[in-house]
Amino acid sequence: QVQLVESGGGLVQPGGSLRLSCVISGGTFSAYDMGWFRQVPGKEREGISCINSRGNIDIINDVWGGRFIASRDNAKNTVYLQMNSLKPEDTAVYYCAAQPRCRNPIDFWGQGTQVIVSS
Fold this sequence. Notes:
Layout: E1 3-7, E2 10-12, E3 18-25, E4 33-39, E5 46-51, E6 57-60, E7 68-73, E8 78-83, E9 92-99, E10 108-109, E11 113-117
Parallel strand pairs: 2-11
Antiparallel strand pairs: 1-3, 3-8, 4-5, 4-9, 5-6, 7-8, 9-10, 9-11
């Protein structure tokens, strides 16, 4: 059973940074491309970025203006999302996801981690 567990969310002031982590267990991490998504209550889940199994960014949503950077460490079965210059509108639940390829349907979702940007 493949499981994804996110961590690193919390309360941060505007302009601050956070690094989210997502650890995968029960599967071969290096076989998956990994995506990051977020969802604001009442709105659809939106994609942030997807990093392929080799560690290259395959998809990036330009709306974030380069503030969000995905990376991965296959030795640690972990994918990261570095979030910089955070704004109150970045408040959301952030999810990681595992998929065979970045443009394929999602195989597995994490449970999400809450990020609140507020002074």
